[in-house]
């Protein structure tokens, strides 16, 4: 089951409960059963599901609730907290230090998304002011170095690799030594994968680890591997003792619950999630915002209906969406419309991603956040506004210019563009009207 489907099912169970004629213990148990089924179908480990059910039951203590209690609120909070607990290992991930050389080594099976994610992460740190570089120690897969090189050139990140040296340990050591001498702050080492967990892979990982002494080892897990994620992460943990997980392809049709279960199995935090093939499709992971987004998603249709009911001027955007497009200008128009629609907290929850961004903010804070987003758009050129946003990736200095012009930060510009891209991806899938939209919602 796709993660967003999972969110929708859980939301549905909560809504059914609150709509039940009498909110009694039977209805509460029914909701728990539905949530448990949804989690199991998304490949979340069955023991975790059973625990979650027990935790919610004991937290809520339904039979002891006083008649005046806001049962709906209490139950919603218990469900939210229990879901957060599944993805929260209560371990602080490693934070790189400025002015020092921080070595980050990637491990994972072939095809998991290591090479792609290495560059995404390098760019992420680079945009935050770290001197960042890449080392390709994947000498096993033909073309791996070339792939990393192409990505690195596109993102303007220094890289190291060899076309002649076949020993990955030598390449890793040489690359890390070189970049350490040059005082790089984030040195990301990509390593080989194999199609399966096999001894040769594990032996190589250990050798590279002892040669480069990483400050952090990151395991890259493909969200679509489902139940297998747990055994795989345990096997890697035993050998490479990674300290963080990045889950890739959360945008795909994935049984993402399996990968999430890996967190509990290995007591290791997820630090980022990959949300697409693009360089900017990497989101920092936070358990609370992940769950709120998971639960907050899936009301795009509600949003469209609400917008239509307000009779706001949507012509151009709607036309674009039916053509599968969603430009930065469309994003700006939508932001402005949202400001007219209020109450903001409700509206933000309807837009994928926006509720996560606005979490913990009251309506006034949210309103000022939206205004800043509009200022960002207003500092763009006409061409940039009407673009699909790719020009900012190709020329990151544009983001710096826009941030300066709007009195905001590069991070905020990036956030806005990520948001616009998400909407753009949805628009692509929405070609073909409401039926297409419903399908798109199930796929995002
Ligand atoms: P590696 O063998 O582990 O280095 O894997 P690659 O980095 O070559 O990635 C394998 C494939 O997965 C490539 O086609 C990537 O574009 C794709 N990929 C990686 N991360 C993501 C993601 O977050 N979403 C999607 N949709 N595709 C991804």
UniProtKB/TrEMBL annotation:
<keyword id="KW-0547">Nucleotide-binding</keyword>
<dbReference type="GO" id="GO:0005829">
    <property type="term" value="C:cytosol"/>
</dbReference>
<keyword id="KW-0378">Hydrolase</keyword>
<protein>
    <recommendedName>
        <fullName>Signal recognition particle 54 kDa protein</fullName>
    </recommendedName>
</protein>
<keyword id="KW-0256">Endoplasmic reticulum</keyword>
<keyword id="KW-0694">RNA-binding</keyword>
<dbReference type="GO" id="GO:0003924">
    <property type="term" value="F:GTPase activity"/>
</dbReference>
<dbReference type="GO" id="GO:0008312">
    <property type="term" value="F:7S RNA binding"/>
</dbReference>
<comment type="function">
    <text>Signal-recognition-particle (SRP) assembly has a crucial role in targeting secretory proteins to the rough endoplasmic reticulum (ER) membrane. SRP is required for the cotranslational protein translocation for ER import and preferentially recognizes strongly hydrophobic signal sequences. It is involved in targeting the nascent chain-ribosome (RNC) complex to the ER and is proposed to participate in the arrest of nascent chain elongation during membrane targeting. SRP54 binds to the signal sequence of presecretory protein when they emerge from the ribosomes.</text>
</comment>
<comment type="subunit">
    <text>Fungal signal recognition particle consists of a 7S RNA molecule (scR1) and at least six protein subunits: srp72, srp68, srp54, sec65, srp21 and srp14.</text>
</comment>
<keyword id="KW-0733">Signal recognition particle</keyword>
<dbReference type="GO" id="GO:0030942">
    <property type="term" value="F:endoplasmic reticulum signal peptide binding"/>
</dbReference>
<keyword id="KW-0963">Cytoplasm</keyword>
<dbReference type="GO" id="GO:0006616">
    <property type="term" value="P:SRP-dependent cotranslational protein targeting to membrane, translocation"/>
</dbReference>
<dbReference type="GO" id="GO:0005786">
    <property type="term" value="C:signal recognition particle, endoplasmic reticulum targeting"/>
</dbReference>
<dbReference type="GO" id="GO:0005783">
    <property type="term" value="C:endoplasmic reticulum"/>
</dbReference>
<keyword id="KW-0342">GTP-binding</keyword>
<feature type="domain" description="SRP54-type proteins GTP-binding">
    <location>
        <begin position="269"/>
        <end position="282"/>
    </location>
</feature>
<keyword id="KW-0687">Ribonucleoprotein</keyword>
<comment type="similarity">
    <text>Belongs to the GTP-binding SRP family. SRP54 subfamily.</text>
</comment>
<dbReference type="GO" id="GO:0005525">
    <property type="term" value="F:GTP binding"/>
</dbReference>
């Amino acid at each position: 089951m796709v993660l967003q489907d999972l969110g929708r099912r859980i939301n549905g169970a909560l809504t059914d409960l609150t709509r039940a004629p009498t909110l009694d213990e039977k209805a509460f148990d029914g909701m728990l059963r539905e949530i448990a089924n949804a989690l199991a179908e998304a490949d979340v480990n069955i023991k975790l599901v059973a625990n979650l059910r027990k935790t919610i039951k004991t937290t809520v203590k339904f039979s002891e609730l006083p008649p005046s209690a806001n049962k709906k609120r209490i139950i919603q909070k218990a469900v939210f907290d229990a879901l957060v607990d599944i993805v929260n290992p209560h371990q602080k991930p490693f934070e790189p230090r400025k002015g020092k050389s921080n070595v980050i080594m990637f491990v994972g099976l072939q095809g998991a998304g290591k090479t792609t994610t290495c560059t995404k992460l390098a760019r992420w740190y680079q945009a935050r002011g770290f001197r960042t570089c890449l080392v390709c120690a994947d000498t096993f897969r033909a073309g791996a170095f070339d792939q990393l090189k192409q990505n690195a050139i596109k993102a303007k990140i220094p890289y190291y690799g060899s076309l002649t040296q076949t020993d990955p340990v030598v390449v890793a050591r040489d690359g890390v030594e070189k970049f350490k001498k040059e005082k790089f702050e984030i040195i990301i080492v990509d390593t080989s994968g194999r199609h399966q967990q096999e001894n040769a892979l594990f032996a190589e990982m250990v050798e590279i680890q002892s040669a480069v002494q990483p400050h952090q080892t990151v395991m890259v897990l493909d969200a679509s591997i489902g139940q297998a994620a747990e055994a795989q992460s345990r096997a890697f943990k035993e050998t490479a003792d990674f300290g963080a997980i990045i889950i890739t392809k959360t945008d795909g049709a994935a049984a993402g619950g399996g990968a999430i279960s890996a967190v509990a199995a290995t007591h290791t935090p997820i630090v980022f999630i990959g949300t697409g093939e693009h360089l900017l499709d990497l989101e920092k992971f936070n358990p609370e915002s992940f769950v709120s987004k998971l639960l907050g998603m899936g009301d795009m249709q509600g949003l469209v209906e609400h917008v239509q009911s307000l009779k706001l001027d949507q012509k151009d955007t709607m036309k674009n969406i039916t053509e599968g497009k969603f430009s930065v200008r469309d994003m700006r128009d939508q932001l402005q419309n949202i400001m007219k629609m209020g109450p903001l907290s409700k509206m933000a929850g309807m837009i994928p991603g926006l509720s996560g961004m606005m979490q913990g903010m009251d309506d006034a804070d949210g309103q000022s956040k939206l205004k800043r987003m509009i200022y960002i758009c207003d500092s763009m050129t006409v061409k940039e506004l009407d673009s699909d946003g790719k020009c900012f990736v190709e020329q990151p200095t544009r983001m710096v210019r826009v941030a300066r012009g709007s009195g905001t930060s590069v991070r905020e510009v990036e956030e806005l563009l990520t948001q616009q891209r998400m909407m753009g991806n949805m628009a692509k899938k929405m070609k073909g009207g409401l039926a297409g939209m419903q399908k798109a919602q199930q796929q995002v």
